[in-house]
Structure formats: C-alpha cells, structure tokens
Amino acid sequence: MPAKDKMPAQDKMNAKDETPSFGEALAEVEAILARLEKDEIDVDELSGEVKRAVVLVDLCREKLQRTELEVQEFTARLREDRSAPADGQPGRT
C-alpha cells in the first residue's frame, strides 16, 4: 500500500505552480510508473496519478520538440556563417 505521507497527484498538480524541468518531469513520471508497477497507488489516486503522468509526458515532448527546433535553427545559422563570404572573398563550400 502507498505511504501515508505521499501527496496525491491532484494535490501535486495544485502545489506545483511552476513548470518542472525536463529532468524533474521525467523523474516524476518514472516514480509514478514505478508505483504503478508495484501496485503502490490506491485505486482512489490512480486516475489523478495517470492524469499527472500524461501532463508530464506532454511537457517533456514539448520541451524536446522546442529544443530540437532550436538546435536546427542554430546549426542552420552555423552553415550560413560558414558559407557567407568574409571581407568580399568567395565563400567555401
């Protein structure tokens, strides 16, 4: 059975006004999954825990997509800088 000092997912969602980092979100999802696998989540808390996990997974996906876009934009700028002529000299390809 779950420990009595664990906060239900709904309370966690209300208590966390700030967005967790990717690492924090991932760790929380992993903790929820571990408790699910060990049958440590009470049936009354199950829905809230699953909803919290979905929110966190969506958050992680958004952060990954945003980071991927930023990396693509950065590498595109690097390619442009390398191919741009310097001091009137033709660019290298």
Quick recap:
With about 90 residues, the chain is mainly alpha-helical.
Report on the structure:
By secondary structure, the protein is mainly alpha-helical. The chain has one domain (9-83): Helix Hairpins. Helix content is 69%, strand content 0%. It has helices at residues 9-15, 22-37, 43-83. Helix 1 (9-15) crosses helix 3 and helix 2 (22-37) packs antiparallel against helix 3 (43-83). Residues 1-5 have low confidence and may be disordered.
Number of domains: 1
Q: If you consult CATH, what is the topology?
A: Helix Hairpins
Cα gyration radius (Å)? 22 Å
> At the first level of CATH, what is the class?
Mainly Alpha
- Give the overall silhouette: rod-shaped
Q: What is the CA–CA distance across the termini?
A: 64 Å
- The counted number of beta strands is 0
Helices, strands, pairings?
Layout: H1 9-15, H2 22-37, H3 43-83
Helix pairs in contact: 1-3, 2-3
Using brief descriptors, characterize the structure shown.
rod-shaped, 3 helices, 69% helix, 93 residues, mainly alpha, Helix Hairpins, disordered N terminus
